[in-house]
Amino acid sequence: xxxxxxxxxxxxxxxxxxxxxxxxxxxxxxxxxxxxxxxxxxxxxxxxxxxxxxxxxxxxxxxxxxxxxxxxxxxxxxxxxxxxxxxxxxxxxxxxxxxxxxxxxxxxxxxxxxxxxxxxxxxxxxxxxxxxxxxxxxxxxxxxxxxxxxxxxxxxxxxxxxxxxxxxxxxxxxxxxxxxxxxxxxxxxxxxxxxxxxxxxxxxxxxxxxxxxxxxxxxxxxxxxxxxxxxxxx
Length: 234
Fold this sequence. Notes:
Elements: H1 2-22, H2 30-49, H3 55-72, H4 74-89, H5 93-96, H6 99-111, H7 114-126, H8 130-150, H9 152-170, H10 172-175, H11 181-203, H12 220-232
Helix pairs in contact: 1-8, 1-9, 2-8, 2-11, 3-11, 4-6, 6-8, 6-9, 7-8, 7-9, 8-9, 11-12
């Protein structure tokens, strides 16, 4: 769990630095900072999207994931959770409006991608935290800029990161047999598409409820073996 703890602390410390820096940053700079981070996220998403090997798996994963996410209404539940934290801890009404956006955006951004899955599995199976340490550095730097623009919600996302990555580390022995290289590649591709959606939201092109698509990341775990089985019959 050392890598998870370091990643969580990196985001928390980065967020605190960003919150302190926010006071010195002119308000009209926030949109420029967020748009810039959106472009960086777009680049990361496009790069990862080419990891996929079967377009049909990605399409089905997105469709099935969206149905599951909408049925459960993950976005509403996460936003309600964020609002409860906001009411309890955020006293500045001027910053409260962006709390849920900061929490949801950075929770997704810091937990979607191959580094989260592979890094957490390496930590759980091999005790190797190298990838999570690298991810912690990247996330900590990103947290500074996001917190400077979106506020306290970014700091709160560190809790989500700890729970999400910690769960993968603890369950690594159980899920490892199901995560072949092909499965991880398709999960990376699907997760990268969600990053592109986050990027569009940050830039201001769309207002997609990305949380409702999150189950799509895990659908390849079932689809890849199914496609292999069907392919083996012909």
